[in-house]
Write a structure and sequence with these properties.
- The structure is a single chain.
- With 102 residues, the chain is of the alpha+beta class.
- It is built from 3 helices and 6 strands, in the order ββββαβααβ.
- The chain has one domain.
- Strands 1, 2, 3, 4, 5 and 6 form a 6-stranded antiparallel beta sheet that branches.
- It is globular and about 50 Å long.
- The mean pLDDT is 94.
Length: 102
């Protein structure tokens, strides 16, 4: 069984809608991406998983700065990765609409 080394959150945006993806790096050197459809997609390496996310126009939350966020129409404070007790509950929170700005 593979143990999780770390999770990273990635996001794509359409207007004020945020679509989340969780990249999970495993101790075997492999990775998996939990997507907004509730699928867990396996990858042979962390680099391959990251490349797939970037090809799908996702960006890493850790690499996002205030200027990048502003260009996308939101602030960093508005971005909170979804939380749930399990992946089934998480699936329902992987697409979020940010409140309209005043």
């Amino acid at each position: 069984m593979n143990d999780t080394l770390r999770d990273e959150w990635w996001l794509a945006t359409i207007g004020r809608t945020v679509i989340w993806a969780r990249l999970r790096v495993l101790d075997a050197g492999t990775a998996e991406v939990f997507d907004s459809d509730g699928n867990t997609l396996p990858y042979d390496s962390e680099d391959t998983a990251r490349a797939a996310l970037m090809d799908a126009e996702f960006i890493s939350l850790d690499g996002l700065d205030a200027e990048d966020a502003a260009e996308r129409g939101f602030t960093l404070d508005e971005l909170l990765p979804p939380h749930a007790q399990d992946d089934q509950g998480l699936r329902e929170r992987m697409v979020a609409r940010l409140p309209a700005r005043r």
